[in-house]
Batch of 2 targets.
Target 1
Amino acid sequence: MRRLLLISNSTLHDGGYLGHCKEQIKQFLSDKVKTVLFVPYALHDRDWYAGKAKEAFTTFGYDVQSIHQQPDALGAINQAQAIFIGGGNTFRLLKTLYDEKIVEAIRKRVLEDGIPYIGSSAGSNVATASIKTTNDMPIVYPPSFDALKLVPFNINPHYMEPDANNTHMGETREQRIKQFHEYEDSPPVLGLREGCMLLVEDRKATLLGKTDAKLFVRGKDPVEYKVGSDMSFLLQSTL
Amino acid sequence: MRRLLLISNSTLHDGGYLGHCKEQIKQFLSDKVKTVLFVPYALHDRDWYAGKAKEAFTTFGYDVQSIHQQPDALGAINQAQAIFIGGGNTFRLLKTLYDEKIVEAIRKRVLEDGIPYIGSSAGSNVATASIKTTNDMPIVYPPSFDALKLVPFNINPHYMEPDANNTHMGETREQRIKQFHEYEDSPPVLGLREGCMLLVEDRKATLLGKTDAKLFVRGKDPVEYKVGSDMSFLLQSTL
Ligand SMILES: [Ca+2]
Ligand SMILES: [Ca+2]
């Protein structure tokens, strides 16, 4: 059974690292998981990042191993009880997943073996159909924008409305997503506001957290969904 | 002699399309140029975009041909008196330049034949070393992030400082550029604020416009440069 917790962002402005989603993470992993495999590839300083993840998950009651400190990345994925991919730069993250040749292995562990997957920000982007709706700067060239395809739609993390007082002329987030939908066969995009997350359990998907989400479907007007909404219909679209 | 006018953005909040850079464009093209070849590839609706460019350049005293309405894109580049590449989505723009097989031809016309090149926003991104410092969403996968390499550095158009009142947790522009500079051999990034542009004439580069620019060099603190600053040193870096 597929189980995913896809979080918009790791840190809310009024809380510590993973503070706002602590309860959801504990409930998601339960006491069946003892050790979480952390993937720090989205940031440059992996040792620092692994320390930060370890600190948070230790207070939640879990051990953490960072994949970059294991002798064999593929072996680490194959033995993982649960995977947490942290945020940072989505391009760097996806390129490293391809470089380490673990894209297919993660898919198999999550979709076939049913190990729990937690993603935050860039880690949520790579869980979806593609990274084409990341907000990040393309600082490095991955071999593809296709991502782990654990779900058949896209996510836009840190989703936000434009600031009405701002005179900046760059595209709004909604305009950017509309440009994505100018392409045929572009899947739905779930805009997860900071504080929001999506729980996927097999064929059921539910919005959790403190804030709402906005769904963009090609050719349709965007629709707001409140915390608690059943989003299972998103899992029925085909890739 | 290489001649470029690289504009941060086409529209300032208090003016019409290309209104804020009208005088600089007229002085740059002078009366030697009669017809400008417009490249609308960064936006989906090319006819609409060509009309908008035509309207603006007509009031400046130039004819406009849009490359998408020519029978042969490569032939149009080879016969152009001047090229203007407009803004939109940088990934879509660069992919189309590669798809149309005109990357090398534009380089040759600008660097060898010396025809004037005007870029705005995405059109400025593609003029540089790479598109790795665009702000745009990666809605489509280009065959490379390498760009036209008309100059040996990168540009970040629409450059802006973070809003001090904003609690949003996404990376600031400066943090994103710092992540780009975590890679060895990453070239300088010129952050052009809206209203700012860079004039390049052979080995001389000068900031023009109403606003200042901020230069980011790997391993160094960023430096502010005022309108009128001589930026020629940026042309000496090698790719
Ligand atoms: Ca990020
Ligand atoms: Ca743009």
Target 2
Amino acid sequence: MSEAKTPDTGRRSERSHQAILKAVVELVGEQGYTRLTIEAIAARAGVGKQTIYRWWPTKGALVLDAFAALMGDVAPLPDTGDVAADLRGVIRATVAELGAPRFEVPSRALTAESQMDPALAKQFVDTLLRPNLEVTKERLRAAQKVGQVARDVDLDVAVELFFGPLFHRWLLRTAPLSESYADTVVDYALAALRPRKSPGGRG
Amino acid sequence: MSEAKTPDTGRRSERSHQAILKAVVELVGEQGYTRLTIEAIAARAGVGKQTIYRWWPTKGALVLDAFAALMGDVAPLPDTGDVAADLRGVIRATVAELGAPRFEVPSRALTAESQMDPALAKQFVDTLLRPNLEVTKERLRAAQKVGQVARDVDLDVAVELFFGPLFHRWLLRTAPLSESYADTVVDYALAALRPRKSPGGRG
């Protein structure tokens, strides 16, 4: 078969690429990361193993790509001027994502296995999680500039006030997640970050 | 060997009991829950398998007992009248516990494997986690009664404002945990829960 970049080859490549990423996410959900093999991915995606080896240097790189595709691009948060509304948007979207089976099952598997594999965990956090935390911090930084969030707030702590409770509830299944829960978390977390009248009165 | 409850037999039983619980925690840290076998526990603890089968009906029950012993008894939080100081105490203690290797390694393993085993996860949460959340809620409820925490606060959401950020940071290793971090989380979370002057002004 010709390797020339005709339109047909390009379309076939793109289809194979998508089929591989989809197979990876499904198989991580079914079997976990450790037991995932290139053979199984190739079989599920209907491609040759060499295709996978040509495109990805390691299993870890492939899994990160597959989860990045699953989670979609990270975009800056909107800035409508209403910080509560903008944050409700991102926290509601996170709740919806955590509850969607196509996302939930493989994400639990990857989070679980990351515990036993700190190098994978670091890549997972740096590549997939931190960009989402950063765009949220960026929105809070803008709110600081207009006096909606106190200037002395540590934004690294602040951002985990929004995502930490969600993650705790989701991972430990302490209670169901819902849109109204998302809104309550945003309200409470923003109340924590408001400028205070009394100087130094955060404690 | 006599089964009569002489003082010597009692001491021997107690030693075996403690050795078994210690072996379980060590082995969960080393191998995870799934691969844990009664044979390996018996060998590590220096007891016969029958001793273990006599005392615990299932592997799950044994692991929960071992982690309950590791985590210690759940006591009500002190109520010194200073809700910030009382909560700093429990959150600092949680940070110390999460950072202690004898606790950290097996806890990560159990948290990870709970993701693949919802029944184990539920027992783990109900037996080990929820009592700690409940005593914290109880302290917040007392603070509501004296006007230090707003009466309309949902305490199930509130309690995860304290523990959620810690857990997110610890499990995902987004940043190190420290005592000053613990204090900051308590300060922010309490600021979120304070009564407001304007009625309905939580949003």
